[in-house]
Amino acid sequence: MRMKKKRHGGERLNLLSSLVCSDIENLVENKDEIFKNSNPLRIEIGCGKGDFIREKSKVEKDYNYLAIEKISDVCVVAVEKYAQSRNLGSLAPNGGWKKSDSTIVPLGSDPVDFSGEDLGNVRFAVGDAAEMLAKLPDSSIDAIFINFCDPWDKKGYEKRRLTYISFLELYSRILTKKGKIYFKTDNRDLFDFSLEQFEKSPLDVVYSTNDLHASDMNGANIETEYERNFTAKGFKINMLIAENNK
Ligand SMILES: C[S@@+](CC[C@H](N)C(=O)[O-])C[C@H]1O[C@@H](n2cnc3c(N)ncnc32)[C@H](O)[C@@H]1O
What range defines the domain where residue 182 resides? Predict the structure, then answer.
């Protein structure tokens, strides 16, 4: 995702660091305490500006969610929009944070104190998802969402695709038995490549379509930023669901 460098992106993220997880092993280990419930944990890889996770976490609220995004200046937008959607305040005109009680926390301050407020069921992490997920314990995650990941279509770059077999083996290890992968892309070549990779993995494809919006799954579909853009340009959306049968 291309994005102009955000002014004060690092400081803005720091203000909302209650929503940002710097140690996902700790999040997984102590999730009941952190989320104040014992619901299963789901992960989105490459959340972009967070439209999908904001909506998904409201519609399927009996789960907790970790949204991972490698570009900090993209993640800050996702975190701010999420915080606003959960009535935790809004961006102040000077770039600081205006709390729900209208107190302004200026840029450069310590993180906003949200004690007593409900942070909801989503946390964010900045960094490379593959590196982070490799540290997680076996069978600890209920589902993984991969929406419009980079196709890495240049020859020789297949191993970087988030649906390459080595990634699928990693997902299989950290997913619970019968845990699910949900994968969407506009890119038919990447989708066909991915189906071949799933075939070699312990993840069984239980549903697949080359035209999600014309399928019986469309009613429950939550569109992402990229999905809206590609659909507007006339692209069909491919989607698969795979189940972990390791
Ligand atoms: C094409 S955008 C799609 C964004 C969003 N999922 C959507 O559908 O609108 C892919 C996003 O994934 C992020 N990304 C790519 N590889 C990643 C990785 N290994 N770990 C975390 N984020 C990643 C990119 O920075 C980018 O924001």
Answer: 128-246
